[in-house]
Each structure stands twice: as C-alpha cells, then as structure tokens.
C-alpha cells in the first residue's frame, strides 16, 4: 500500500536531490490472475461513436462525423457506456494495458491525473485482477492541475487521489510527484516545472520529437460542466499560454482561486489521453467538443488534440446530445 500523505509534503526541490528519483529496482510481480500477460489494445476508431452495453455494441451518430472531429495530430475515438460502473471497468483495462506496454518498452510508465469524478472511475485498478498484475513499481504519478492548498485540505486533488486511489495500490512513494504546497501559486508552478525538467533530463519522462515538450505516456483528464480541462477555463488567457509547461492561476472562476495547471502544449504532447466524462450536466460541452473546432463557441476541451491517441469514456448521460 502507498505510504501516508506526510511522505509527500517536502518541497519538490528537496525531492529532486533524493535517491528516490533514481529509477527504482524492478519489484517482482505477485501472481497474475490472467492466464496470459496483459497486452496493449488500442480502441478501434471509425466514423461513429461506439456505445457499450455489457458485451453489446451499438452505434451513436454525431452531427459531425468522427473524421471531421478528428485532429490532424492523432486518432480520436469515443466509447459510450450504459453506466459509470461499466465505464470504470473499461477504463481500468485501457489504463492497465497502456501501463503494461510502456513498462515493458522503457521500464517506466508516466501517468497524469486530474481531480473530480475521475478518481472514482479509477477504482477498478485497485481491485483484482489489476491490483495483483500491474507492475506498480514502474508507475510515476503527476497532476494536470492542483489547487494551492495543504495536502490534507478537502480541496486538494492530491488528497482526493490519495484517499480514493493511491492509498489502495502499492505505488512507490518516491514516484508520486505532488506540488510544494508551502509555496505561493507562482512559486509552486515554477517548482513543479523544474521537477518535470529534471525528470525529462533523467529519462523518466519522454520527450516529444515534434515539440521537445515532455511526452507523458497517459493523461487521464476529466471535464467540468463549462468544458474546462485541468484548470484551463473558458475565456481565460491561460488557454492561450504556449511558452510555459506549468503555469498558475489566481482568479479561478471555481474555488479555490489559486491553482497550478499544465498548459495545452504539454497536454497535447501526450502519447495517450483519456477524457472521462459522466453526467447529463456535461452533455453540452461533450456535444460541442465533437463539432468543428472553428466554431465561435469553442470550449477548452475542444483544444485537447494529442500527438497520439485521444479516447473519450462517456456514460450515456454525458453522450445524450450526440
């Protein structure tokens, strides 16, 4: 099991000097419940959104075809599920397969979390068969955004992830990279970017050949009812930030006001992005996201366009306007 939150409260600059940043020894896996090793399986992509009901698949048409909604940078697809429970089962399989692929290729797996309901949807990874079959020693955990509050504060994305996921898996404490909450927002953002640069230099985080930006293996993102992703909100100047890897916001339209966030260039350098969205209250931005990105009513989620693969995990309520 993961260590308690107190192990992650030291400033990141102290963490940079810690031996824990060196690549950890590979820990023998416990016996897998699978008869065969996990294999990476990319979701199929077509000109339709696929709906999932148990083992039955149905097609969901959109006003704009998936080929129109596809980005130039990478593949885009969507899965629609009858329930959040079914979504969670599929998300666990998808995440575990990608983790297995990268762990075997480069002996590390870099995964970025966000807050909100996403953490609940990851719960199946902490259950059999994944708790026993995943190579947790290869995982390195980051946050797409964080509220600048103490780690034991109810608004903390770290606390949310720790309570709902990290405390339930055997993650190595040195592989969990939380922000230095002792710093003000600007300092915390700069400190986190420094940490990322160190991990790029040390080879833990890959580099995009196209942009030179950090290339995370998997970014797990949620979406707000206004179409925001991370802490990039509609109409806010940070949506257009192109220079910084990590920046800060002091006037968030949602409390708490002070946050740090990855910028879109870093988000879009990812190998894989899963956008996990549930609930009828988010159906409007989901619908907008599948329309032509030149539309004047662009919402931030429409700007998610990774170099690699983008897959939407939607429950039927979130997909109700497609």
From TrEMBL:
Gene Ontology MF annotations: 6-phosphogluconolactonase activity
Pathway: Carbohydrate degradation; pentose phosphate pathway; D-ribulose 5-phosphate from D-glucose 6-phosphate (oxidative stage): step 2/3
Enzyme class: hydrolase
Gene Ontology biological process: carbohydrate metabolic process; pentose-phosphate shunt
Superkingdom as given in the UniProt entry: Eukaryota
Family matches, as Pfam families: Glucosamine_iso
UniProt keyword annotations, A-Z: Hydrolase
EC number assigned by the record: 3.1.1.31
GO cellular component: cytoplasm
Domain Glucosamine/galactosamine-6-phosphate isomerase: 83-312
Catalysis performed (reactions): 6-phospho-D-glucono-1,5-lactone + H2O = 6-phospho-D-gluconate + H(+)
Family the UniProt entry places it in: Belongs to the glucosamine/galactosamine-6-phosphate isomerase family. 6-phosphogluconolactonase subfamily.
Protein name: Probable 6-phosphogluconolactonase
Species in which this protein is naturally found: Hibiscus trionum
